[in-house]
Write a structure and sequence with these properties.
The complex is a heterodimer of chains A (418) and B (501). Chain A has 418 residues and is mainly alpha-helical. Chain A has 16 helices and five strands. Chain A has a three-stranded mixed sheet with strand order 2-1-3. The termini of chain A are far apart. Chain B is an alpha/beta fold and 501 residues long. Chain B folds into two domains: 233 residues, Rossmann fold (3-Layer(aba) Sandwich), CATH 3.40.50.300; 244 residues, Rossmann fold, CATH 3.40.50.300. Helix content of chain B is 33%, strand content 25%. Chain B is built from 17 helices and 22 strands. In chain B, strands 6-7-8-3-9-10 form a six-stranded mixed sheet, with helices on both faces. Chain B has a six-stranded mixed sheet with strand order 16-19-20-13-21-22, sandwiched between helices. In chain B, strands 2-1-4-5 form a four-stranded antiparallel sheet, with helices on one face. The longest helix of chain B has 16 residues. Chain B is globular, with a radius of gyration of 24 Å. The model of chain B has no long low-confidence stretch (mean pLDDT 90). Classes of the chains: A mainly alpha (418), B alpha/beta (501). Chains A and B meet through helix 11 and helix 12 of A and helix 2 of B.
Chain lengths: 418, 501
């Protein structure tokens, strides 16, 4: 091929190398050159782990220095790529981000220890409601229905799981109730948007307000009055998978968890498989992209949308259960606290792909635990600022690496035929 | 398989789109369904395909009455359809599109991609289609996309194949190839319903012709009938098939375009170094298969789409307008008839009068200070409706309620009633009835004769040949040649396929 002269609009541009270079410099200067004196100790094993790995003490400012230099090296590589009009690959961005996080952790924990397994494990647990909510949202959006009501589904799931488990003394029933609750909220959304062709955003907002109202009312009138009997579920047992949970670091993080976490870890790859490798997924995506074309090959658009939205609701309901019996225990007023909306953002950040969305959810989980932990190791430091870091990184990542994403074409458009 | 439609009636509200239509297609026959835009051909086929339910009437296949609840039933019964607007999912591969709806699977419902690819390759080879099963549909040219549609129908063992305006997106050569494919299919026993409004194609390929007008069957004809005979049957009166025009009196350069380039919505280069001039008193037609950058070119000329920075420039009556706003360009005297009148030409919910002043909403004959001069607007609109023969109950009728032809006349009236130096007409007669086509063509020619420059962008070769004084052919964003209108269809066809003259 002949060499075509590219104009400004067609070039990849130097946005990402410059942003990465800037971040690398920040790390180098603040965590490295101006870093704090002292060691940070990375704890890879817990005291009672079968396999004990040695503690890893590192000098905090050296860590910052090395990370900063590596980040600058990546930035220069990205610059070279951009010169050749090539995009920096995603894995490069991931390594870049990890380096930054390690430097941040090391800096925060100067003179202290960093319990790696604890931080990673808690990040995962905290991410589970977001992850399951996002999977639910993703299932809706892939068939062309916008689901703003993830928040409502999380709340419904959380409420029903706590109440049903308390009353029946059965966690299984609690989980089932949560999933049915999420599905029912979904069905309302499905019926209004498929049958009555309503504005999906409005239905979603109304559902959120409605469910917040109902749960608040019941919480005040019923749960607080009779908490011992109806809002005292306790939490699910932690299951240790034999052998696998003895693997250092990974074991305690992944293979020693509650059933809700395991469910999320199974649902994400399953959804990926179904969506991209099976007939059901092909049809679902066809409905979300071009419903009329799907209709002309004999796929029922209404039925496909209805079931995917409903099952998506079950996933979000389970996410709600993870907040109560899978974590905190009792139900609290408006306990979803915006996680449903974060899940919505996670779907977009993950570009409607289950695996990427799951990682995006983990990022949010990590930012929550980071704030809590930072407060413990470096009291007095503005924790809100620390908590902001992952989000700032996210925004930069979206701008620099993800670029323009393409949602399903028929998203939020009601389907009618002549 | 023998297909029979008996007394099919389909109403939309008070509009009768199909009025007890009878049609019989014998096995192995190519049956042309000839009719104007809006005659009800597509409605009839959508009834046959199960997308619409008929209000009255019966569909019979091999003399057995059918009851289709949806396209799935029609397909299962052996009816395949190649839709005018392709029913393909752009982000899927060819194999995925073909497999969709009857996917070969392995264990766990997993797609058997190998099998799906194999199916595409088999059919593709049998008919010499040369289609890559792994290509993404959005990356394929429209001609190939149509082949994917045909493969899709054949992979479902269609015994009756309906082709809805299949040649609209093809070059003359591709059209010939398609006709060859149709003959091949027919000789292997497939019944073919060929929907079109192009007389030449009907005469060339059809065994039987049924003519539909205003939702009714008005007669049948043999392919030996003369073109003018078929045309008058289709329109209901004598039609002038050629337009008479004087020798062009060419004036000064009005529009000068030099080496401009632009990206399409996906960031691909759609216009790639285009240069040309249009002089006063001439019609320069930009011909080419749809999707070769014509849409983007028109948008760049109007200022809706920015051209690539640092490249080329556009001059309108001697002024550099490369960076100028749309309004500045309109003020210099640019008239624009957009390709998609529903999307870019009119606000359907607005009345005709409101639409007439869309591009003159400030300091114009429609305004008085900051407000609208309602009496003036009513008068101007009424005059324009009369002058441009817009058939409407009143000037307060919403534009969306008019037929395609009358909507287009509203757009043309609005653009031509201003004092324009240059008229850009993109697909001015798409989806318009023959009467309106004649009228719009006359208007375009009278602009030219008044010394205005006209840039006609059209994918209809007949229209290009009838109106143009010079023809520029676009292929993949470039102008591959500018020829005289005396060029033959073959020459133009070659240019449209990218073979330079």
């Amino acid at each position: 091929m002949s060499i075509v002269e590219l104009s400004k609009e067609e070039r990849i541009g130097f946005k990402s190398p410059f942003i990465m270079g800037g971040l690398g410099l920040l790390v180098l200067v603040f965590f490295g050159l101006l870093g704090r004196e002292g060691d940070s100790t990375f704890l890879l094993s817990r005291k009672d782990d079968v396999v004990q790995l040695p503690e890893l003490p590192v000098d905090s400012s050296t860590l910052g220095l090395v990370s900063g230099l590596l980040m600058l090296a990546i930035a220069s590589y990205s610059f070279v790529l951009a010169r050749q009009n090539r995009k920096s690959p995603m894995w490069l961005a991931v390594i870049f981000g990890l380096l930054g996080v390690v430097a941040l952790l090391g800096w925060l924990a100067t003179g202290n220890t960093i319990p790696v397994a604890f931080i990673a494990g808690t990040a995962l647990v905290l991410a589970v409601p977001i992850m399951l909510g996002a999977m639910g949202g993703l299932m809706c959006e892939r068939v062309g229905i916008t689901n703003i009501a993830i928040e409502a589904q999380l709340l419904t799931g959380a409420f029903l799981a706590a109440v049903v488990a308390s009353i029946t003394d059965s966690y299984t029933l609690g989980i089932i109730a949560a999933m049915i609750g999420g599905a029912l909220v979904s069905m309302v959304l499905a019926v209004f948007s498929i049958k009555f062709l309503a504005q999906q955003i409005i239905v979603g907002v109304v559902l959120n307000v409605l469910i917040i109202g109902i749960t608040n009312f019941l919480y005040q009138q019923w749960l607080t009055e009779d908490a011992e009997n109806v809002n005292f579920p306790g939490t699910l047992d932690i299951i240790k998978i034999p052998v696998l949970s003895d693997i250092p670091v990974i074991g305690p993080v992944i293979f020693e968890n509650r059933i809700t976490v395991f469910a999320a870890l199974v649902i994400v790859p399953t959804l990926y498989f179904v969506l991209f490798k099976t007939k059901l997924g092909l049809r679902a995506r066809a409905v979300g992209e071009h419903p009329l074309a799907a209709d002309t090959v004999g796929i029922s658009v209404a039925r496909t949308r209805f079931w995917w939205v409903t099952i998506g609701g079950m996933s979000a309901g389970l996410g709600g259960a993870a907040m109560t019996i899978g974590g905190g225990g009792a139900f609290g007023r408006e306990m979803a606290g915006g996680l449903g909306f974060i899940a919505l953002a996670v779907v977009i950040l993950g570009r409607w792909h289950p695996i990427s969305a799951a990682f995006a959810a983990l990022l949010f989980g990590f930012s929550i635990i980071l704030r809590i932990w930072a407060n413990q190791v470096s009291p007095g430091f503005p924790t809100d600022f620390i908590a902001m870091v992952p989000y700032a990184v996210t925004i930069i990542a979206v701008v620099a690496f993800v670029g323009q994403s393409r949602p399903p074409k028929a998203l939020a458009i009601p389907y009618t035929k002549g | 398989m023998k297909l029979e439609l008996r007394g099919i009636t389909k109403r939309f509200g008070t509009l009768v789109a199909n009025d007890s239509i009878d049609l019989t297609v014998n096995p192995g026959e190519i049956h042309a369904l000839l009719g104007e835009n809006g005659a009800g051909k597509s409605t009839l086929m959508n009834v046959l395909y199960g997308l619409y339910t008929a209000d009255e009437g019966q569909i019979l296949l091999d003399d057995k009455p059918q009851d289709f609840d949806g396209p799935g039933d029609a397909m299962a019964a052996g009816i395949g359809m190649v839709h005018q607007h392709f029913m393909l999912i752009p982000v899927f591969t060819v194999a995925e599109n073909v497999a969709l709806g009857h996917e070969p699977t392995k264990a766990l419902g997993a797609l058997d991609t190998a099998k799906a690819r194999q199916q595409v390759i088999e059919i593709s080879e049998r008919f010499g289609f040369n289609v890559d099963p792994d290509a993404l549909v959005e990356d394929l040219p429209v001609g190939v996309q149509q082949r994917v549609e045909i493969i899709k129908a054949l992979s479902r063992d269609a015994k009756v194949l309906v082709l809805d305006e299949p040649t609209a997106v093809l070059t003359p050569q591709e059209t010939d190839e398609l006709m060859e494919i149709m003959r091949q299919l027919a000789s292997s026993g497939t019944s073919i319903v060929f929907i079109t409004h192009k007389l030449r194609e009907v005469k060339e390929v059809a065994d039987t012709i049924t003519v539909i007008r205003l939702g009714k069957v008005v007669g049948s004809a043999s392919p030996n009938a003369s073109t003018s005979e078929l045309a008058s049957l289709m329109v209901g009166r004598e039609v002038e098939l050629t337009i008479s025009k004087k020798q062009a009196e060419v004036g000064d350069v009005i529009l000068k375009v030099e080496d401009i380039a632009a990206l399409d919505d996906r960031g691909q280069r759609a216009v790639d170094g285009v240069s040309f001039e249009v002089r006063g008193g001439e019609v320069l037609a930009v011909a080419g298969v749809q999707g070769n950058g014509q849409t983007e070119l028109a948008e760049v000329l109007l200022g809706l789409r920015s051209s690539l920075s640092g490249r080329g420039h556009i001059e309108l009556t001697g002024q550099d307008v490369t960076e100028a706003s749309v309004r500045a360009r309109l003020d210099i005297g640019l008239g624009y008839v957009p390709e998609d009148r529903k999307k870019d030409g009119l606000v359907s919910e607005f009345t005709i009068a409101e639409n007439m002043m869309l591009n003159a909403s400030y300091k114009s004959r429609f305004t008085k200070g900051l407000s609208i001069n309602f009496p003036a607007r009513a008068k101007i609109s009424a005059d324009l409706v009369k002058e441009f023969d817009v058939r409407t109950p009143s000037i307060d009728t919403p534009a969306g309620n008019l037929s395609g032809g009358n909507q287009q006349k509203v757009v043309v009236a609005r653009e031509l009633s201003r004092d324009v130096n240059l008229l850009i007409a993109a697909q001015p007669t798409r989806g318009v009835d023959v009467g309106s086509i004649e009228f719009i063509h006359e208007q375009i020619i009278s602009e030219r004769d008044a010394g205005k420059a006209v840039l006609l962008i059209s994918t209809e070769l007949d229209e290009v040949l009838a109106l143009a004084d010079r023809i520029a052919v676009m292929y993949r964003g470039k102008i591959v040649g500018i020829v005289e209108p005396s060029a033959t269809r073959e020459q133009l066809g070659k240019l449209m396929a990218g073979v330079s003259a």
